[in-house]
User: Fold this.
Amino acid sequence: MTTSPTRLALLTLALLAVSLIALLAAVTAGLLARWDGASAPAALLRAGIAFGGTLTLLIAMLALVAGALT
Assistant:
């Protein structure tokens, strides 16, 4: 199965958007944890958990949409 360049470009843009949303969620979670009085390592741990969870959820949704469109 060959893939058109347009489809690859859209997939790349979607992956970039998903990564940026996950990064924003991680930064927000880390800042909120830090403002709540958590230590720096604990805030980084919460940010990492938020990043991983958000990225997993959004990649799963992207795979679902991509599968439905093909």
